[in-house]
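During the first year of the project, the team set up a workflow for recording each protein of interest as an amino acid sequence followed immediately by a discrete structure-token representation. This format lets reviewers and collaborators read both layers of information side by side without switching files. As required by the reporting guidelines, we include two representative entries from the current panel. The first entry is reproduced here exactly as it appears in our internal archive.
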Amino acid sequence: MINWGIIGCGNVTEVKSGPAFNKVPGSRLVAVMRRNRALAEDYARRHNVPRYYDKAEDLINDSEVNAVYIATPPGSHAQYAIMAIEAGKPVYVEKPMALNYRECQMINEAAEKYNIPVFVAYYRRTLPGFLKVKELIENGAIGNVRFFIIQLFKAPSEDEKSGKLPWRVKPEISGGGHFFDLASHQIDYLDFLFGPVLKVKSVVLNQGGLYKAEDYVSVQFVFGNGVTGNGTWCFSLDHSSNRDLMEFFGDRGSIRLSCFTFEPIVVISSYGTREYINERPENVQYYLIEQVVNELLGKGKAVSTGISGARASKVMDEIVEEYYASNS
């Protein structure tokens, strides 16, 4: 039995991940930690978790906990992951894997030293709709893929407009702005489809002036198999411009999907137009957590590891490197 402890039982753990630890066979959630003890107690009560803590080391040292899920903001991922690894406990860490690529390397170096597995919550690698797109591409449904387009546009929140900034736009906590939080999923999925990114060229700006982190990113990607693509992320537009699009073009057709809104997948080719449901499970991390538990039980392999997760962070660091070097 894999007995999980959660470090950082905040919003992401309420529905997306937390309940899945008790639903997956061979898995149960036995302890949670949050720096605010009252909030940790509240979470434990509502989710029927036996124990709660306000210090990460207490949870890690709990003798019943034999695997740790780290769901804090990225700024503390490396610290807590390495603590758990040194205690001999496998780690499942939220994305992005750490504050930057160097911290990802530190986690992986510790994992190798102590022979402890590390997994990263890039769960789109396991979702049925995203697996369907991978299958369609690999089976030649649109022929040879030539290029892709990513467009993710979101309006700033009212808190951001009023100066009440969330941690996601504080680079010292998140690694960057919303680009780090959201584009990390898309960059990891591209890695899943086409392998590691070979090179990137980028334009990174702050256009809205609401915070210091980047709010506009334009990137050209090149992959080792010859596939190229362009991505544009902007977080300072009006709500009327909100957009969530990933589109892949081949020499025999195209595939269109959304990354976050789970719109139907649309395939257009000489055979006509087909649509596929892009399922969003109630607990969206369930399938990946199931894979992680099965690997820990010796029943298979999980598709999102510390090695693959670090590659996404490496690419993001390369994209924003010049921006932060000139704005430090």
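The second entry, processed by the same pipeline in the following quarter, appears below.
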Amino acid sequence: MATVTMYTSAVCPYCMNAERLLASKGVTEINKIRIDLQPELRDEMMQRTGRRTVPQIYIDSQHIGGFDDLRALDLAGGLDPLLAA
């Protein structure tokens, strides 16, 4: 299974939705980068993704985007192949 990394915070409902969707696909481990606990990592996230909001999700080295992007990828049938890689 692919490695999933997610910039996240504890109070983000979109982050929780992303985690639920990934769990429904069999993802048991997510490398969480908590920008609420380490605010300096928000700058890193913004430089890597060009975005300011969480979640920001990577599957292996591919930036997926936020929850809406993840859900759209799933609905288009593209999430399962990425996770299986």
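For the second entry, the following points were noted during internal review. The beta strands are 4-8, 31-34, 56-59, 62-65. The first strand starts at residue 4 and ends at 8. Both points are flagged for discussion at the upcoming steering committee meeting.
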